[in-house]
Amino acid sequence: MLPSADLTITNIRKELEKISSEMMQLIQKYGLDAKNALDIIPVAQRKITRPKDYTRFLELSLEGRILGEAATALEKATVTD
Asked: Is the pTM higher than 0.90?
């Protein structure tokens, strides 16, 4: 996770790319095939057999969500009317 001093749109995008890449590896490894975003946690609970991988999946999900919200807040703060 990025330190707060490094929260720039560019750094957030780079971090989100890393998170997405690692998440895709887990999705492919375990064949996670949720039909919509609301089903992903139950599918992951059922299909991810290694507790360490499941924990990492949850960490990546949370980090991605937090960084996405930070990017949205930064974009709103820098947009002028």
From this structure: no
Q: What is the CA radius of gyration of the chain?
A: 15
Task: Provide the pLDDT confidence category of residue 62 given band limits of 50, 70 and 90.
Answer: very high
Q: How many degrees, rounded to 5, is the angle at CA 62 between CA 58 and CA 63?
A: 115
The three state secondary structure string of 34-78 is CCCHHHHHHHHHHHCCCHHHHHHHHHHHHHHHHHHHHHHHHHHHH
Backbone angles phi, psi at 15, to 5 degrees: -65, -40
Whole-angstrom CA distances from 54 to 33, 37, 63, 78 are 15, 16, 14, 36
Q: Name all contacts of 21-29 with Cβ < 8 Å and 24+ positions apart.
A: 22/56, 22/60, 23/57, 23/60, 23/61, 23/64, 26/53, 26/56, 26/57, 26/60, 29/53
